[in-house]
Amino acid sequence: MSCLGGAHGAAMRCRLARHDVRMWTDTHCHLDAAEFDADRDSVVARARTAGVTQIVVPAVEAANFDTVRVLAHRHGVAYALGIHPIATGRAAEGHLALLREALQAQRNDPRLVAVGEIGLDHFLPGLARDRQVHFYVAQLKLAREFGLPVILHVRRSADTLLKHLRLTPVPGGIAHAFNGSEQQALAFVALGFKLGFGGAMTFDRALQIRRLAQVLPLDAIVLETDAPDIPPHWLYKTAAERAAGDRPRNEPAELPRMAGVLAALRGLPLPELAAATGANARVALPKLAELAQSAPLDAVSGAA
Fold first, then answer.
1. To the nearest whole percent, how much of the chain has pLDDT over 70?
2. Spatial contact of 177 and 154, defined as CB atoms under 8 Å apart
3. What is the DSSP string of 13-77?
4. 3-state secondary structure of 293
5. pLDDT digits over 3-33, tens only?
6. For 301, which DSSP code?
């Protein structure tokens, strides 16, 4: 496409052409994590330069509800509020009341896009499953009350998550870092969910995840980093390196390269994948569409 010509429409087409491969949405990043304390502004700047136009920052417990909200407004990104299953051991019943108060107080905040991160973890030892279910179901009810989608933690717990979603329907959302079966994946899709793919997909040995990334409907997939966790293979450190303190740190700027892996797996051009996964994110989290309409193309979005 030529960028010559004096008409405003031609200028707009050129602007879109420059960005058509660079409009990515990171649907899951813990930007508030301590790993980013030293250079958080630079992390966001690198994401912006890489073409990541939106980031969703989920809370994990009541103590960081305000933190993620303030970060979202400072950096012009989106956030979610919820209590992570790993945090349920230290969460008090009153924290559910705090969550409801926060959802009520921020219900008109365009940057609050979901209830999350919530869900169930059946992998880590020492987490009481009945307590996890209690917090999960209570938060599903809050999501339904406030008309918000949910961002789900799914770790060897897909069937139980699905059971409660059928009992307490919510306005869809994202099954983050999905690593279940194809049957379970399609069950989430049938309930209005998109499935998050990221760093794990970049490892050749992740056969199940890579197969799902190939065979699932394109309109079921969103991209995520889960930064600073789940680094891609090019950031991988050996056990010895990690023991010596050299721990990998994932960040949103890695997302376009992860997208390149997905594009190769599916045989898709990057512009098509960018458009599809971005649209999927806006379907899963509808308030992202409002933010996209108000944000310039050449930034993550205007800092608030």
1. 89
2. yes
3. HHHHHHHTT--EEE--B-TTSGGGTTTHHHHHHHHHHHTEEEEEEE--SGGGHHHHHHHHHHHT-
4. helix
5. 333 333 333 333 333 334 459 999 999 999 9
6. -
Give the global pTM.
0.90
Answer whether 42's CB lies under 8 Å from 75's CB: no
**The length of the chain, given as a count of residues:** 304
Tell me the three state secondary structure of residue 107.
Answer: coil
Question: All domains of the chain, ordered by start, with CATH?
Answer: 21-294 (3.20.20.140)
E strand map for the chain: 24-26, 52-58, 78-81, 112-121, 150-155, 173-176, 193-197, 221-223
Q: Residue 20: what are its φ and ψ, rounded to 5°? A: -65, -20
- Provide φ and ψ at 268, rounded to 5°: -115, 145
Q: Look-up: residue for tokens 């899709």?
A: 189
DSSP conformational letter for 218? G
